[in-house]
Specification:
By secondary structure, the protein is mostly helical. The chain has one domain. Helices cover about 45% and strands about 0% of the residues. It has 5 helices and no strands. The relative contact order is 0.13.
Length: about 110
Amino acid sequence: MVMWIGALVPTGPELAGSTSPRHGAPSIGDITESGLAELMERAAEVPWVAEALDGFTNCRATCDHFAFCLGGNPANKFFETGRFDTTETTHCRTSKKLLMKGVFQHVAGPRKR
């Protein structure tokens, strides 16, 4: 997403306008100063993006539901924990994992007693 001031926030509009004491604004640069391709090419070098990528890696390594959520939304992780590299969040647990648990139970059919 490109903010009105030219800041490029690649992970979603939820982070636009927020700041982090550790990382500052969640932007990878100003699109009016650098081209989109250039900013995206070096995005992984930006500390908060690197931390978010670590979060996806951590989720992939530890969660059976990764194929469903693909590591979750960095904004949820940040707003719940103050970090981007966490794994399970309340949002994840209640809107992804419990949903999948219900789907699996439904597909399995009623339990025989």
